[in-house]
Amino acid sequence: MTLDRHALGFGAGERAIFASDPWASRGRLFPETGSLTRSDFQRDRDRIVHTTAFRRLKHKTQVFIAADGDHYRTRLTHTIEVAQIARALARALKLDEDLAEGVALVHDFGHTPFGHTGEDALHEMLEPYGGFDHNAQSLRIVTKLERRYAEFDGLNLTWESLEGLVKHNGPLVAASGEGMRGPVPQPILDYCAVHDLELASFASLEAQVAAIADDIAYNTHDIDDGLRSGYLTFEMLEEIPFLAGLMREVGGRYPGLEASRFTHEIMRRQITAMVEDVITVAQDNLKDIRPDSAADVRNAGRVIATFSGDMSKTDQQIKKMLMTRIYRHPEVMRVRANAAQIVTDLYNAFMADPREMQKHYWIDQIAGMAEPAKARHVGDYLAGMTDTYAIAVHQRLFDHTPDLR
């Protein structure tokens, strides 16, 4: 496969025929008058950026708890990096950049405090009531939990933005209606009952580039943060042929380069190589499928924006290294156990006395609710917490708060 540079749209210009058309959106659940100055997808992106949920991302863990240092990625900085890569991919493929960026910006809204640790703990607590899924929680936030507008709950995003949020990792159900990766979370089914997001089809190409941008971003910045933490070393990176090649290239061009600059030169080359690989694969797939519309992309039966076979192998090698060397490092596991204890303690405290959820919108009604409804409200409240707020509330309610340093 060869990258076709003449087909790339390096300037914001005419969209491809298979791109999502912001002037022909399927609309919003609650009809609104269009803007004279912004497309519907621009308005979606702007609404996402102005949410409380977006601001909370700055104090939510990516991998390393914020107390570990100011320079580690948070959910917010990760999200910004994903959005930048998604927009670059969208421009190269002549897609709608605003839709791709919006999906990237909203994709982690539903994450709990303390990263996947918090999600696992909350899922365990909510399992008798349907469990917890951060993607479904993102949908709840933008369709129900954000309370900003006079005429509706949530953000009233377009069908395309909501579809991209829910299906950016592929279809959720098979043609038979069965879940592709287990049961479809109930919040997604509930929403689709009133605003069908067509869970059996693939998402737009804009959502697909947002999804692969997520992989590119964390594969790169988790290595960067791992080197900064000392859990990774340059010698460990040499175990992966792709990274070893990048290190030889940088070392040969800049002998004796200081470690921080050496790291950055590797990371920027990694992002470039992965982005160009996705563009090349997407171009070849588009030539094969020849879609005449965004609908043809959804019905193509496969992902269009993805890695090549060789880069997929590298992607899996990097993920395995990160899992072994960082995510399951004994010190990280110690902190994860303590973070899980905080989430579990808070859940039990709120279920015992919902009044401890200070400033909750429905605080006066929750105590009298049936157990499943009360549990879901507690889950919403806990998922919305930042790391810092969860720690502060735990310190208020308990005599001892586990150490996260």
UniProtKB/TrEMBL annotation:
Q: Does the keyword Lyase apply?
A: no
Q: Which domain of life is it from?
A: Bacteria
Q: Which CDD domains match?
A: HDc
Single annotated GO MF: triphosphoric monoester hydrolase activity
Family per similarity comment: Belongs to the dGTPase family. Type 2 subfamily.
Q: Where is the HD domain?
A: 75-219
Give the species this sequence originates from. Answer: Pararhizobium polonicum
Q: What is this protein called?
A: Deoxyguanosinetriphosphate triphosphohydrolase-like protein
Q: Which InterPro entries match?
A: dGTPase, Diverse_Catalytic_Enzymes, dNTPase_2, HD/PDEase_dom, HD_domain, PHydrolase_assoc_dom
